[in-house]
Design a protein that fits this description.
mainly beta; 131 residues
Length: 131
């Protein structure tokens, strides 16, 4: 099993920045990819971006490309979501998630944008962007 804990959410003005963290514990050796999703009230959960657990490959949703950056610190078993130039429409609960190596090894991140391609989930952290 893998446990995920997000942190770093909060309230920020439009144009500002926030960095979310997702600390993984447990059998992290089983992770192939980590992703960030978000869900705003009344909307379905949507893919934000993903990174492979090893290597530097990332993939982003068009809505955040150029503004958000995902990085990883394997020594700390932590994945980060740096969010710049935030907009009110970025307001949502942000979730990190992890996918199993045994199920998805070799897959392209662009094929792993559905939330069904993730096996472990954090509890979520609220991000609110004021106009």
């Amino acid at each position: 099993q893998v446990q995920l804990v997000e942190s770093g959410g909060g309230l920020v003005q439009a144009g500002g920045s926030l960095r979310l963290s997702c600390a993984a514990s447990g059998r992290t050796v089983n992770i192939y990819h980590m992703g960030w999703f978000r869900q705003a009230p009344g909307f379905e959960r949507e893919f934000v971006g993903a990174i492979k657990w090893t290597g530097d490959t990332t993939h982003y949703a068009d809505s955040v490309k150029g503004r958000f950056t995902i990085s990883r610190d394997n020594a700390k078993n932590t994945v980060y979501l740096q969010m710049n130039s935030l907009k009110p429409e970025d307001t949502a609960v942000y979730y990190c998630a992890a996918g199993s190596y045994f199920r998805y090894a070799g897959s392209r991140l662009s094929d792993l944008v559905q939330d069904t391609k993730y096996d472990y989930w954090g509890q979520g952290t609220q991000v609110t962007v004021s106009s």
